[in-house]
């Protein structure tokens, strides 16, 4: 194993310590902003196995990566995921393993995931309306998501974060009910601005419900908020506390307030491609190195070269923006 104290720093001076790993492109729902109704998934043989993922993380940890988040698709459709979490939690240098899930399969697994070493959990829920849930996800199962959220609380995850995608003309009426649900159960709600990675390529800026507008709805219909005093400059979310002490709300404003200047993330797709940005147009083939007999030094060099090539930002708000070929479910949420 290589050893180095040199951090992963790109040409803009941004250090990278956060690796998001997609464990599958498969999903048990079909959110309209993420994937098509009919989709051809990758052959299972193309996906990294758990031993390969563990090896990548062990190399990445020597380069300063200390936070890992597992995503999909839906990561809980991957068999025996707690085994992978236990492996990654034991990697020297990894101090935090998180998970992003749609929550449908979470309730019976929450306690096992916690005992395996999972530190953080984010659960997607865009609406409290079962009919709208069915329209947005093209599936039933809202009651299972809510059960999963409550099971995560019971298992001892704190905070339990609930992610809601905000789409103009679609989810305005969901802001206040979601906030009340989060306040009632001690959850940390986070609104995510609609991003151009939808399957139908229907995204346009006019459909983005901006964080500032959500703040206005919350202040009018729930309770006033104020930004927290000491924001983490590397965190993608801008956090606010309710002035009545009723909890915290976060906003991932990738369109109206891009956080590219402080981005510390890399992404590994389920088929082993390293991406230095969610919207990256180029990838580094880590799977080919793993299966081609490359040593750890070669894998570490691939990480360094990917970080060195990282661009300044995604340019969503410019005419230069180019939509990546991959959809969100294929990249990893």
Compact overview of the structure:
This protein has 333 residues and is α/β, with parallel strands linked by helices.
Account of the 3D structure:
The radius of gyration is 19 Å and the shape is globular. Helices cover 29% and strands 18% of the residues. It has 10 helices and 14 strands. By secondary structure, the protein is an alpha/beta fold. Strand 7, helix 6 and strand 8 form a beta-alpha-beta unit. The protein has helices spanning 50-62, 81-89, 110-116, 130-137, 142-155, 175-185, 211-221, 286-291, 296-308, 328-331, and strands at 8-9, 15-16, 18-22, 67-71, 96-101, 120-124, 160-166, 188-193, 225-227, 238-242, 248-252, 265-268, 273-275, 284-285. The mean pLDDT is 92. The protein has a single domain (8-331), classed as TIM Barrel (Alpha-Beta Barrel), CATH 3.20.20.70. The relative contact order is 0.16. The strands form 2 sheets. The chain has a 12-stranded mixed β-sheet with strand order 9-10-11-8-7-6-5-4-3-12-13-14. Strands 1-2 form a two-stranded antiparallel sheet.
């Amino acid at each position: 194993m290589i050893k180095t104290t040199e951090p992963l720093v790109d040409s803009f001076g941004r250090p990278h310590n956060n690796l998001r790993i997609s464990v599958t492109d498969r999903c048990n729902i079909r959110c309209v902003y993420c994937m098509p109704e009919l989709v051809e998934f990758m052959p299972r043989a193309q996906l990294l196995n758990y031993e390969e993922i563990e090896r990548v993380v062990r190399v990445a940890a020597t380069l300063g990566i200390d936070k890992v988040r597992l995503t999909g698709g839906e990561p809980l459709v991957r068999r025996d995921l707690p085994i992978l979490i236990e492996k990654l939690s034991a990697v020297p240098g990894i101090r935090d393993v998180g998970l992003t899930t749609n929550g449908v399969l979470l309730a019976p697994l929450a306690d096992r995931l916690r005992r395996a070493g999972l530190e953080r959990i984010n659960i997607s829920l865009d609406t409290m309306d079962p009919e709208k849930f069915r329209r947005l996800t093209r599936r039933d199962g809202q009651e299972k998501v809510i059960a999963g959220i409550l099971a995560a609380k019971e298992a001892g995850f704190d905070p339990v974060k609930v992610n809601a995608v905000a789409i103009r003309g679609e989810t305005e009426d969901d802001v206040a009910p979601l906030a009340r649900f989060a306040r009632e159960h001690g959850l940390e709600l986070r609104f995510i601005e609609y991003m151009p990675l939808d399957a139908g390529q229907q995204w346009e800026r006019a459909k983005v419900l901006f964080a500032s507008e959500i703040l206005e709805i919350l202040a009018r219909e729930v309770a006033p908020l104020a930004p927290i005093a000491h924001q983490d400059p590397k965190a993608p979310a801008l956090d606010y506390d309710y002035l009545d002490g009723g909890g915290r709300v976060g906003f991932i404003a990738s369109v109206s307030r891009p956080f590219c200047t402080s981005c510390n993330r890399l992404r590994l797709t389920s088929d082993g491609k390293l991406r230095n940005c969610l919207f990256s147009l180029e990838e580094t083939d880590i799977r080919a190195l793993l299966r081609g007999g490359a040593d750890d030094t070669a894998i570490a060099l691939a990480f360094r070269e990917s970080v060195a090539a990282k661009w300044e930002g995604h340019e969503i708000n410019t005419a230069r923006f180019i939509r990546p070929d991959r959809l969100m479910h294929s990249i990893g949420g």
